[in-house]
Specification:
- Helix content is 46%, strand content 15%.
- The protein contains eight helices and seven strands; from the N terminus they run βαβαβαβαβαβαααβ.
- It has a seven-stranded parallel β-sheet with strand order 3-2-1-4-5-6-7, sandwiched between helices.
- The relative contact order is 0.15.
- The chain binds nicotinamide-adenine-dinucleotide.
- Nicotinamide-adenine-dinucleotide binds next to helix 1, helix 4 and helix 6.
């Protein structure tokens, strides 16, 4: 039986792949055989990640990218196509968090959270989607969040929640538009995962963590590799009939 999880010689873009969940996704897809483009805001971590992927025997390219900037995304996708000749997998992982009360959230803050988390995914899906539709194949996995389905407690984060609900609905909408043209689009929605993004929230407001763990049936945060494995499945041929789905990986948080 052929290994449906094998990604040998597929080319994957991972946005925000320099650290945290994105880095673990990049490493996991590379372990499965894929060559990786790291599209990342921070050029230092991007290059370090690409170097590590090359050390695994795969091809890798670091491209400094601001996903919230349409021109930056178009240039990144062009560069990846020129370098690798094709894109088989896109993982829209780059994201930021923002914990401010809605009544005082500024225009600039709304623009920033929606610009990175939602518009970033839109620009990347459109640019890579055109290429995939031309080839008649491809898999896109957008990193949503359980915050796209529930309202977190106790921190205020309407902008983040709205952006992630948008990412989940973007994935479903594109999945339906592109289903008969060979391109699958899904989302993976993590619960609390131990990364810099989570630690930043905890260091500013240490009492939040207690509530988060109490509200998670498994009683612990997840690790980036838990998310990476879900992405691997959706990016692979094992998920050939899965499109428009939102795979929640949250230690049971949304079950309660
Ligand atoms: N950590 C969690 O608990 C959690 C839970 C649910 C969803 N998520 C989502 O998972 C994704 C990764 O989160 P993480 O915890 O690894 O965060 P992180 O802050 O550790 O890493 C985010 C990465 O994205 C990059 N990035 C930020 N803005 C960018 C931009 N404009 N253009 C390109 N790259 C950019 C950063 O440089 C960084 O490498 C995000 O979309 C986040 O919303 C995280």
């Amino acid at each position: 039986m052929s290994n449906l999880f094998d990604l040998t010689d597929r080319v994957a873009i991972v946005t925000g792949g320099g650290r945290g969940i994105g880095w673990e996704i990049a490493r996991t897809l590379a372990q499965a055989g894929a060559h990786i483009a790291i599209a990342e805001l921070d050029p230092m971590t991007a290059e370090k990640a690409a170097e590590e992927i090359r050390g695994m025997g795969r091809r890798s390219l670091a491209v400094q990218t601001d996903v919230s900037n349409h021109d930056s995304v178009e240039a990144m996708v062009q560069q990846v196509i020129e370098h690798f000749g094709q894109i088989d997998i896109l993982v829209n992982n780059a994201g930021i968090a923002l914990n401010v009360p809605s009544e005082t959230c500024t225009v600039e803050e709304w623009n920033r959270i929606l610009g990175v988390n939602l518009y970033g995914a839109i620009w990347c899906c459109a640019a890579v989607g055109r290429h995939m539709l031309e080839r008649g194949k491809g898999a896109i996995v957008n990193i949503g969040s359980m915050s796209g389905s529930i309202v977190n407690k106790p921190q205020p984060q309407a902008g983040y929640n709205v952006s992630k609900a948008g990412v989940i609905m973007l994935s479903k909408s594109l999945a339906a538009e592109w289903a008969k043209r060979g391109v699958r689009v899904n989302s993976v929605s993590p619960g609390y995962i131990g990364t810099d993004l989570l630690n930043k929230g905890l260091s500013e407001f240490p009492d939040w963590g207690k509530t988060w763990l109490e509200m998670t049936p498994m009683g612990r945060v997840g690790s980036p590799v838990d998310v990476a494995h879900a992405v691997w499945y959706l990016a692979s041929d094992a998920a050939a009939y899965a499109t428009g789905t939102d795979l929640i990986v949250d230690g049971g948080y949304t079950a309660w």
